[in-house]
Amino acid sequence: MIKWTIAALILAYVAASILYVHFRGRVRHKPVRQLSDHSSFMAPINLVMYLFSKLPDRPFHDEKDFPELAVIKENWEIIRDEAEALENHIKGSDKKDDAGFNSFFRRGWKRFYLQWYGEHHPSAAELCPQTTALLASIPSVKAAMFAELPAGSQLVRHRDPYAGAYRYHLGLRTPNSDDCYINVDGEARGWRDGEVLMFDETYIHYAHNDTDMDRLILFCDIERPLTNRFARGFNQWFSRTVMAASASPNDEQDNVGGINRLFSKVYVVREKGKALKQSNWLLYQISKWVLLSLPLVLFLLFFWLI
Q1: 226-265: per-residue pLDDT in tens?
Q2: Is 197 within the bounds of a domain?
Q3: 3-class DSSP state of 187
Q4: Distance between CA 223 and CA 65 in Å, rounded?
Protein backbone atom coordinates (compact mmCIF):
# COMPACT_ATOMS: atom_id res chain seq x y z
CA MET A 1 0.00 0.00 0.00
CA ILE A 2 2.79 2.41 0.90
CA LYS A 3 4.58 1.91 -2.41
CA TRP A 4 1.43 2.75 -4.38
CA THR A 5 0.90 5.86 -2.24
CA ILE A 6 4.44 6.94 -3.14
CA ALA A 7 3.78 6.19 -6.82
CA ALA A 8 0.54 8.20 -6.71
CA LEU A 9 2.31 11.17 -5.10
CA ILE A 10 5.04 11.12 -7.75
CA LEU A 11 2.48 10.96 -10.56
CA ALA A 12 0.49 13.77 -8.94
CA TYR A 13 3.62 15.92 -8.81
CA VAL A 14 4.41 15.21 -12.46
CA ALA A 15 0.83 16.02 -13.51
CA ALA A 16 0.79 19.23 -11.44
CA SER A 17 4.12 20.36 -12.91
CA ILE A 18 2.87 19.79 -16.48
CA LEU A 19 -0.30 21.75 -15.75
CA TYR A 20 1.75 24.55 -14.21
CA VAL A 21 3.97 24.80 -17.28
CA HIS A 22 0.97 24.72 -19.62
CA PHE A 23 -0.98 27.49 -17.85
CA ARG A 24 2.03 29.56 -16.80
CA GLY A 25 2.00 31.96 -19.75
CA ARG A 26 -0.62 33.76 -21.79
CA VAL A 27 0.44 31.88 -24.94
CA ARG A 28 -0.01 28.12 -24.77
CA HIS A 29 0.33 25.05 -26.92
CA LYS A 30 -2.81 23.12 -27.71
CA PRO A 31 -3.37 20.41 -25.04
CA VAL A 32 -2.42 17.49 -27.30
CA ARG A 33 0.74 19.29 -28.44
CA GLN A 34 1.57 20.09 -24.82
CA LEU A 35 1.44 16.42 -23.83
CA SER A 36 4.04 15.48 -26.44
CA ASP A 37 6.21 18.61 -26.07
CA HIS A 38 9.60 18.32 -24.38
CA SER A 39 8.49 20.96 -21.84
CA SER A 40 6.14 18.34 -20.34
CA PHE A 41 9.00 15.88 -19.85
CA MET A 42 11.14 18.61 -18.28
CA ALA A 43 8.30 20.08 -16.19
CA PRO A 44 9.06 18.19 -12.92
CA ILE A 45 12.63 19.54 -13.00
CA ASN A 46 11.74 23.02 -14.22
CA LEU A 47 9.09 23.45 -11.53
CA VAL A 48 11.90 23.48 -8.96
CA MET A 49 13.56 26.34 -10.88
CA TYR A 50 10.33 28.34 -11.06
CA LEU A 51 9.38 27.86 -7.40
CA PHE A 52 12.78 28.97 -6.10
CA SER A 53 13.56 31.80 -8.53
CA LYS A 54 14.71 35.05 -6.96
CA LEU A 55 13.25 37.14 -9.76
CA PRO A 56 9.56 37.50 -10.64
CA ASP A 57 8.21 34.92 -13.07
CA ARG A 58 7.76 36.96 -16.26
CA PRO A 59 8.73 36.75 -19.95
CA PHE A 60 11.26 39.61 -20.10
CA HIS A 61 13.80 40.67 -17.49
CA ASP A 62 15.81 43.83 -16.84
CA GLU A 63 19.54 43.63 -17.50
CA LYS A 64 20.05 45.80 -14.39
CA ASP A 65 19.17 42.77 -12.28
CA PHE A 66 22.42 41.22 -13.56
CA PRO A 67 25.08 43.90 -12.89
CA GLU A 68 27.94 41.47 -13.59
CA LEU A 69 26.86 41.42 -17.25
CA ALA A 70 27.36 45.18 -17.78
CA VAL A 71 30.94 44.57 -18.92
CA ILE A 72 29.67 42.58 -21.90
CA LYS A 73 27.59 45.48 -23.16
CA GLU A 74 30.46 47.91 -22.51
CA ASN A 75 32.62 45.84 -24.89
CA TRP A 76 29.96 45.13 -27.51
CA GLU A 77 31.95 46.69 -30.36
CA ILE A 78 34.98 44.46 -29.64
CA ILE A 79 32.65 41.45 -29.57
CA ARG A 80 30.99 42.58 -32.81
CA ASP A 81 34.33 42.97 -34.58
CA GLU A 82 35.41 39.45 -33.60
CA ALA A 83 32.06 38.04 -34.70
CA GLU A 84 32.23 39.73 -38.08
CA ALA A 85 35.82 38.59 -38.60
CA LEU A 86 34.81 34.92 -38.32
CA GLU A 87 31.46 35.17 -40.05
CA ASN A 88 32.30 32.34 -42.47
CA HIS A 89 32.52 30.08 -39.41
CA ILE A 90 29.02 30.99 -38.20
CA LYS A 91 26.99 28.20 -39.76
CA GLY A 92 24.51 25.42 -39.25
CA SER A 93 25.34 21.74 -38.97
CA ASP A 94 24.41 18.97 -41.38
CA LYS A 95 25.96 16.22 -39.22
CA LYS A 96 23.06 15.76 -36.76
CA ASP A 97 25.37 16.73 -33.90
CA ASP A 98 23.32 19.59 -32.42
CA ALA A 99 20.10 18.18 -30.93
CA GLY A 100 19.10 21.42 -29.22
CA PHE A 101 19.02 23.52 -32.38
CA ASN A 102 18.76 20.94 -35.17
CA SER A 103 15.31 22.08 -36.30
CA PHE A 104 16.50 25.70 -36.66
CA PHE A 105 19.09 24.96 -39.33
CA ARG A 106 16.62 24.23 -42.11
CA ARG A 107 15.23 27.74 -41.61
CA GLY A 108 18.66 29.28 -42.19
CA TRP A 109 19.61 29.96 -38.56
CA LYS A 110 23.37 29.75 -37.91
CA ARG A 111 25.62 29.68 -34.85
CA PHE A 112 29.20 29.60 -33.63
CA TYR A 113 29.70 28.27 -30.10
CA LEU A 114 31.89 30.18 -27.65
CA GLN A 115 31.27 27.95 -24.62
CA TRP A 116 28.64 25.48 -23.47
CA TYR A 117 27.97 24.60 -19.81
CA GLY A 118 31.58 23.95 -18.90
CA GLU A 119 32.55 22.64 -22.33
CA HIS A 120 35.03 25.11 -23.84
CA HIS A 121 35.55 25.21 -27.58
CA PRO A 122 39.20 25.42 -28.71
CA SER A 123 38.00 26.81 -32.04
CA ALA A 124 36.44 29.79 -30.25
CA ALA A 125 39.51 30.51 -28.14
CA GLU A 126 41.58 30.52 -31.33
CA LEU A 127 39.29 32.66 -33.51
CA CYS A 128 37.79 35.13 -31.00
CA PRO A 129 40.09 35.22 -27.95
CA GLN A 130 38.88 38.54 -26.51
CA THR A 131 35.23 37.50 -26.45
CA THR A 132 35.89 34.05 -25.00
CA ALA A 133 38.18 35.50 -22.29
CA LEU A 134 35.60 38.13 -21.36
CA LEU A 135 32.76 35.59 -21.09
CA ALA A 136 34.93 33.11 -19.17
CA SER A 137 35.53 35.80 -16.53
CA ILE A 138 31.80 35.94 -15.67
CA PRO A 139 30.72 32.83 -13.72
CA SER A 140 27.00 33.31 -14.35
CA VAL A 141 27.51 32.95 -18.13
CA LYS A 142 26.88 29.24 -18.65
CA ALA A 143 26.74 29.14 -22.45
CA ALA A 144 27.41 31.53 -25.30
CA MET A 145 27.43 31.66 -29.07
CA PHE A 146 27.18 34.02 -31.99
CA ALA A 147 23.80 33.51 -33.68
CA GLU A 148 22.67 34.74 -37.09
CA LEU A 149 19.07 34.98 -38.30
CA PRO A 150 19.14 35.59 -42.05
CA ALA A 151 17.01 38.16 -43.85
CA GLY A 152 13.48 36.92 -44.48
CA SER A 153 13.75 33.91 -42.13
CA GLN A 154 11.92 32.96 -38.97
CA LEU A 155 11.95 30.53 -36.03
CA VAL A 156 8.64 28.91 -35.16
CA ARG A 157 6.88 28.89 -31.78
CA HIS A 158 8.71 26.79 -29.20
CA ARG A 159 9.90 26.53 -25.63
CA ASP A 160 13.50 25.81 -24.75
CA PRO A 161 13.77 22.71 -22.56
CA TYR A 162 15.56 23.76 -19.34
CA ALA A 163 14.65 26.56 -16.93
CA GLY A 164 18.02 26.75 -15.17
CA ALA A 165 19.04 29.89 -17.08
CA TYR A 166 17.72 33.07 -18.65
CA ARG A 167 18.49 34.01 -22.24
CA TYR A 168 20.66 37.07 -22.98
CA HIS A 169 20.77 38.63 -26.45
CA LEU A 170 23.19 41.44 -27.30
CA GLY A 171 22.67 43.05 -30.69
CA LEU A 172 25.90 43.13 -32.72
CA ARG A 173 24.75 43.84 -36.26
CA THR A 174 21.01 44.11 -36.58
CA PRO A 175 18.47 45.80 -38.87
CA ASN A 176 17.63 48.11 -35.91
CA SER A 177 14.01 47.63 -36.84
CA ASP A 178 10.89 46.28 -35.17
CA ASP A 179 10.47 44.13 -38.28
CA CYS A 180 13.30 42.00 -36.87
CA TYR A 181 12.00 40.83 -33.52
CA ILE A 182 11.45 38.13 -30.95
CA ASN A 183 8.01 37.51 -29.46
CA VAL A 184 7.99 36.00 -25.95
CA ASP A 185 4.61 35.01 -24.50
CA GLY A 186 2.82 37.41 -26.84
CA GLU A 187 5.15 40.42 -26.33
CA ALA A 188 7.35 41.46 -29.27
CA ARG A 189 10.66 43.34 -28.99
CA GLY A 190 13.12 44.21 -31.74
CA TRP A 191 16.89 43.84 -31.61
CA ARG A 192 19.15 46.92 -31.70
CA ASP A 193 22.92 47.27 -32.10
CA GLY A 194 24.64 47.39 -28.71
CA GLU A 195 21.39 46.80 -26.81
CA VAL A 196 20.38 43.86 -24.61
CA LEU A 197 17.26 41.71 -24.51
CA MET A 198 16.87 39.33 -21.56
CA PHE A 199 14.01 36.86 -21.42
CA ASP A 200 12.86 33.53 -20.05
CA GLU A 201 13.16 31.12 -22.95
CA THR A 202 10.86 28.56 -21.32
CA TYR A 203 7.91 30.75 -22.25
CA ILE A 204 6.64 30.08 -25.77
CA HIS A 205 8.54 32.34 -28.15
CA TYR A 206 9.33 32.80 -31.83
CA ALA A 207 11.46 35.10 -33.97
CA HIS A 208 11.05 36.84 -37.32
CA ASN A 209 13.47 38.76 -39.50
CA ASP A 210 11.14 40.45 -41.97
CA THR A 211 13.90 42.72 -43.32
CA ASP A 212 16.51 42.46 -46.07
CA MET A 213 19.44 42.41 -43.60
CA ASP A 214 20.87 39.50 -41.60
CA ARG A 215 20.70 39.77 -37.80
CA LEU A 216 23.83 38.91 -35.79
CA ILE A 217 23.77 38.72 -31.99
CA LEU A 218 25.67 37.40 -28.99
CA PHE A 219 23.45 34.72 -27.45
CA CYS A 220 24.10 33.62 -23.84
CA ASP A 221 22.54 31.46 -21.16
CA ILE A 222 22.77 33.22 -17.79
CA GLU A 223 22.39 31.15 -14.62
CA ARG A 224 18.98 31.69 -13.05
CA PRO A 225 19.30 33.30 -9.58
CA LEU A 226 17.72 30.97 -7.01
CA THR A 227 16.72 31.47 -3.39
CA ASN A 228 18.40 28.54 -1.63
CA ARG A 229 21.48 26.36 -1.68
CA PHE A 230 19.60 23.16 -2.54
CA ALA A 231 18.08 24.63 -5.71
CA ARG A 232 21.38 26.24 -6.73
CA GLY A 233 23.26 23.00 -6.16
CA PHE A 234 20.76 21.01 -8.19
CA ASN A 235 20.89 23.55 -11.03
CA GLN A 236 24.68 23.45 -11.12
CA TRP A 237 24.72 19.64 -11.06
CA PHE A 238 22.20 19.38 -13.87
CA SER A 239 24.10 21.96 -15.91
CA ARG A 240 27.49 20.26 -15.68
CA THR A 241 26.10 16.76 -16.32
CA VAL A 242 23.05 16.88 -18.58
CA MET A 243 23.44 20.27 -20.27
CA ALA A 244 27.17 19.81 -20.82
CA ALA A 245 26.39 16.51 -22.57
CA SER A 246 24.53 18.49 -25.26
CA ALA A 247 27.72 20.29 -26.37
CA SER A 248 28.02 20.67 -30.14
CA PRO A 249 31.23 21.39 -32.10
CA ASN A 250 32.15 24.26 -34.40
CA ASP A 251 34.74 22.06 -36.12
CA GLU A 252 36.77 18.87 -35.69
CA GLN A 253 38.84 20.15 -32.77
CA ASP A 254 35.78 20.65 -30.51
CA ASN A 255 34.13 17.96 -28.39
CA VAL A 256 30.76 16.41 -29.18
CA GLY A 257 28.65 15.77 -26.06
CA GLY A 258 27.13 12.40 -25.30
CA ILE A 259 23.58 13.56 -26.00
CA ASN A 260 24.57 14.67 -29.48
CA ARG A 261 26.46 11.46 -30.18
CA LEU A 262 23.26 9.60 -29.30
CA PHE A 263 21.11 12.06 -31.26
CA SER A 264 22.87 11.28 -34.52
CA LYS A 265 21.77 7.65 -34.11
CA VAL A 266 18.25 8.40 -32.84
CA TYR A 267 17.68 10.73 -35.78
CA VAL A 268 17.63 7.72 -38.10
CA VAL A 269 14.54 6.47 -36.22
CA ARG A 270 13.06 9.97 -36.33
CA GLU A 271 13.40 10.09 -40.11
CA LYS A 272 11.63 6.74 -40.38
CA GLY A 273 8.87 8.19 -38.21
CA LYS A 274 8.49 11.15 -40.56
CA ALA A 275 8.24 8.79 -43.52
CA LEU A 276 5.59 6.75 -41.68
CA LYS A 277 3.63 9.93 -40.94
CA GLN A 278 3.45 10.66 -44.65
CA SER A 279 2.49 7.12 -45.68
CA ASN A 280 0.22 6.04 -42.79
CA TRP A 281 -0.89 8.84 -40.45
CA LEU A 282 -2.98 6.59 -38.17
CA LEU A 283 -0.21 4.06 -37.61
CA TYR A 284 2.20 6.96 -36.96
CA GLN A 285 -0.10 8.40 -34.26
CA ILE A 286 -0.54 4.99 -32.60
CA SER A 287 3.22 4.38 -32.60
CA LYS A 288 3.92 7.88 -31.30
CA TRP A 289 1.59 7.63 -28.32
CA VAL A 290 2.72 4.10 -27.48
CA LEU A 291 6.31 5.37 -27.28
CA LEU A 292 5.28 8.44 -25.27
CA SER A 293 3.38 6.20 -22.84
CA LEU A 294 6.36 3.90 -22.35
CA PRO A 295 7.93 5.86 -19.43
CA LEU A 296 4.62 5.69 -17.54
CA VAL A 297 4.31 1.94 -18.20
CA LEU A 298 7.89 1.34 -17.01
CA PHE A 299 7.27 3.51 -13.93
CA LEU A 300 4.18 1.49 -12.94
CA LEU A 301 5.95 -1.78 -13.70
CA PHE A 302 8.79 -0.77 -11.40
CA PHE A 303 6.39 -0.18 -8.50
CA TRP A 304 4.60 -3.42 -9.31
CA LEU A 305 7.80 -5.44 -9.04
CA ILE A 306 9.37 -3.88 -5.95
Answers
A1: 999 999 999 999 999 999 999 999 998 999 999 988 988 8
A2: yes
A3: strand
A4: 12
